[in-house]
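Table S2 (continued). Query chain:
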Amino acid sequence: MEKKLRVGILGATGMVGQRFIALLENHPWFEVVTVAASPRSAGKTYQEAVGGRWKMDTPMPEAVKDLVVLNVNEVEKVASTVDFVFSAVDMTKEEIKAIEEAYAKTETPVVSNNSAHRWTPDVPMVVPEINADHFDVIKDQKKRLGTEKGFIAVKPNCSIQSYAPCLAAWKEFGPKELVVTTYQAISGAGKTFKDWPEMEGNIIPYIGGEEEKSEKEPLRVLGKVENGQIVMADSPKITCQCVRVPVLNGHTAAVFINFENKPSKEELIEKLVSFKGFPQEADLPSAPKQFIQYLEENNRPQVTMDVNYENGMGVSIGRLREDSIYDYKFIGLSHNTVRGAAGGAVLCAEALTAKGYIQAK
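Corresponding output:
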């Protein structure tokens, strides 16, 4: 790319906003030129606004430290400085819907980490390896919004990333029923152990809204574009429990699965390790070379050993074995704030750029 696209981060001071900034440092296609946050942060430098709340393992990039934070509610002002924005704003669902549409109507594409528009019928919710074809619905969304370039695209919930890719890889075998338990890291709640000391040595068997997302969102990802909207897949049927565990990064899933046509274990593993999609074919900058790895050891995947596979953009599967009630069971692991949040959104933006949906203004 001759000239980097100018990027704005909405909600730049929060944990996901910080992850966007860390991931975009030295990105070959994108450059963060604008950071926007709540009115209380506006007018401060980014470094001042974040203060002691920088939560990444790597230092704050020098290039953003002196950027003056803009008021995220001053839509026209923010939009005039960028080619597109990533959205990680912390607002009510209705406020998020309204502000993301307001940015789209300034002819500024919005790639969102938020859940507000995940069920808007003409907004694509994409794991780029699985359903990049859902971007086709953007033309219908633009008609509704009355825009030429502006639109909204979202990525799905972090909790589905450790098992939904398997369903796409195994599509020909007809996955029909899943029982899933996810063991979710505290960074999924925007926390560190410093913020949330009561999570040390603790498990909380409830995460608000998470089970519904984990049961339904894979069906939207596996669905199809029909008459200008996304139509959910009919199967598989998924039931899920979501548990918060004392881990900083990494969502693990324990899955039981039944198939229409029961494959062999060897067939299942071969489909996992050979599975690829548009990001690999287009050699996108953030794409993992191998999306899914299969680990043979009985004690893998482990958070400490595997969460950063492919720089946190890959998915690790292990312990695939036959079950006494279901056809098979397995363990999945994905990085919830990289592949599951900001990294997944960056990969979506790269796919949208490669397909011509995001361009310089």
